[in-house]
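User: I'm putting together a teaching handout on how multi-component assemblies are represented. Below are the sequence lines for each component of a complex, exactly as they appear in our records. Could you produce the 3D structure of the whole assembly as structure tokens, so the students can see both representations side by side? Please keep the chain order the same as the input.
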Amino acid sequence: MLKTTPLNAAHRALGARMVDFGGWDMPVNYGSQIEEHHAVRRDAGMFDVSHMLAIDLLGADARDFLRRALANNADKLHDPGRALYSCMLNDAGGVIDDLIVYYFSDEFFRLVVNAGRADKDLAWLASLKGSYETRGNPPTGLPSGRIPSCSPKSGAVSEESKRPLDERANSALELRPRRDLALIAVQGPNARERVWQALPGTRAATEAMRSFQGVQLGELMLARTGYTGEDGFELMLPAARAEALWQQLIGCSVKPCGLGARDTLRLEAGMNLWGQDMDESVSPLDAGLAWTVDLDGARDFVGKAALLAHPQSRQLVGLVLADKGGVLRGHQKVATPQGEGEITSGTFSPTLGRSIALARIPLGVNVGALVQVSVRDKQLAAKVVKPPFVRNGRILVN
Amino acid sequence: MKTPEHLKYTETHEWIKTEADGTLAVGITDHAQEVLGDIVFLELPPVGKRFTQGETCAVIESVKAASDIYMPVAGEVVAANDALVQSPEQINADAYGAWMFRIKPDNAADTGSLMNAAAYTGHAEK
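Assistant: Of course. Below is the structure of the complete assembly, with chains in the same order as your input.
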């Protein structure tokens, strides 16, 4: 039985082609994926991303916990509503998931994690929480004033941490999955204007809001974030209100877009997808995500020791197919003068009108180099470029 | 899903039209184009090449995935629709107008083994 979002009936009423997306019944397109793609690049489109999970971290220890749990540093978050992209790593430095963390107060952070990783993330965070509380961070709410040096796999397990999370008394850290929320991403150069048309009351509070910033307005959260390389808002709201908002946005000429367009848009924007461009066996340093890892200072985080012991060994680059003869796809082999690599995500780029890819290849292959990709039974030339391929409607590679 | 009565069909979602000269035009069905999504690449067999029935003879790629096109009956390729290679999105727009190649069958009676519209509709809806 597939899981459904609060917008499932709305998708079906629009004639969406529905697919099993990691156990979720989701729209891949509502007709033409390419038209949906262009709508986001040129005007405004929206995606139901309610399969993603918001996890609220509540309590006085929330920041300290995130300093430990995330590879990026939650201490960068000071202004209420500020967002930060980060990986969450295992002890070996592999990527358990990538996520966005929003800061609302020192006792309220919100993570938004991938749908297919939500159960894993929750279990991982719960285990980290258990060891965090065991190792000198008693759940009293008193600031400990020191960096916890716990490891999720070491240390004694207290009776306290064996109990279900919500039964623990006086805990200064609570993990609260928010399956009661729906998520709608409205993206495109005109996306914000359309949201303001649909929800006039939100304009004043969000007009001056910069990128990677969000705000809570009653039951609604708006954030100037997304996964397309365009401007826009991601909206979180109670599930019961989702369909009404969806219909309002359609009424304001926002085009419903499926997960197919979401994938081509994110790939053009040079954004990684967990499970393709990185996973638990891949270091963020080998996935083009070094910029999201904060190795500075004394802060210890899960996976830091492994990253320090194993510096970058490969690079994630962009490829643009130079020859005709097919489409670049994940797992195709890439021959370079420095050795073999592999495409991690590939597609046809509607904006460029040619095939593009992200590929993990040996260090030392420079931007501008031509490499050979095995496409079915052929070797096709592709040019190495620095992602992103497209941002804010403009092509950035040639 | 459109399934014209005057065409024959394969289990692998090709349609076959018998032309007045006895050659067979081949394309993919409306159902196939809908499942594939936006088609962005097409590679056709060289004219003059012979294939056995069921052999891979062309490649079609959508934004989503690559798929093989299979020879519906044994024969020789006598024409390829090069205009379609330049604008493969025509397959999405009009699957039954978008012929990919024509073949001269080794044995005209071989088309008798292909599905009619009703049988294909049942197959595609499974």
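A couple of points students might notice: The CA atoms of residues 1 and 31 of chain B lie 6 Å apart. Strands of chain B lie at 8-9, 14-18, 24-28, 39-43, 50-51, 56-62, 66-70, 75-80, 101-105.
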